[in-house]
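User: quick one, fold this
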Amino acid sequence: MNNYIQDGNVLSLAPGADVASGVGYLFGTGLFGVATENVTSGVAGSFVTEGVVEIAKTSALAISVGDRLFWDATNKVVNKTASAQQCVGIAVAAAANPSATVLMKLGSYVAVGA
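Assistant:
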């Protein structure tokens, strides 16, 4: 097939801000990735866009398996706040309140009736 480009699990993308390794970044309103290395603003770097990652979360928040997770770009964490934030994944393991991280399957998920 001559129009296949790549598998899409890891993409080379140039963020509009510096992104530390292991931290997420939302490109536009629909493409979220986690930096695999420190990436400088405006310079292409590797971002994981599919799979399961351990990512920072709002510490004072309990998360259950199956909870939709939203990106808080200001604090660079995921949480369960649906208003004014983009869904970037779903929890695949519970995370206690307090705790620093959660296991998240990358991807945007819309609940039925949402």
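User: anything notable?
Assistant: The CA atoms of residues 70 and 79 lie 5 Å apart.
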